[in-house]
Amino acid sequence: MSEGDIEKVIEELAYFRDEMLRLYQEGELSDDELIDLKGFVNTIITHIANGNKSEERLVNVMGGTVIETESERLIRLGVNQGQAQMIVELEREYGLNDEEILHQMQEKIGLSFEQAMVYFKQYGKQLV
């Protein structure tokens, strides 16, 4: 996309944003509808821009941040899932207790405690 194309897209996004805000102010869009519409537009922008240098600029027009697409999330979870399974299996062989295994998943692959619990329940025994 050329710089001129980007400027045209920004202009159109600003118009769309202004129209959404006008409809919101007139009571034709609820809080939830406004938030959802902005989120949908940002998802589309993120998908179309696919990480190019204009992506953040386009998303900022809508008042959002660059988001992770569903396919990116699934790819990320797939990698984490395989790593989590390996950690549970290996650490179990070395005799670590449940809390130590959860800690290893958080430390080694950067999972939150909640994410680690999901994988632990899937690949290990339940916490006692």
Counting structural domains, the number is 2
Radius of gyration: 21 Å
The 3D shape can be described as elongated
* Unreliable stretches: none
How much of the polypeptide forms β-strand, as a percent range? under 5%
Kindly state the percentage of residues in helix: over 70%
Mean pLDDT: 77
Count of helical regions: 6
- The overall strand count is 0
Largest sheet: none
What can be said about this structure in brief?
The protein is mainly α and 128 residues long. It is 75% helix and 0% strand. The model has no long low-confidence stretch (mean pLDDT 77).
What does this structure look like?
The protein is mostly helical. It has two domains: 3-61, no CATH class; 70-123. Helix content is 75%, strand content 0%. It is built from six helices and no strands. The chain has helices spanning 3-25, 31-49, 55-61, 70-93, 98-109, 113-123. The radius of gyration is 21 Å and the shape is elongated. The termini are far apart.
SSE blueprint and pairings:
Elements (H helix, E strand, L loop, with lengths): L2 H23 L5 H19 L5 H7 L8 H24 L4 H12 L3 H11 L5
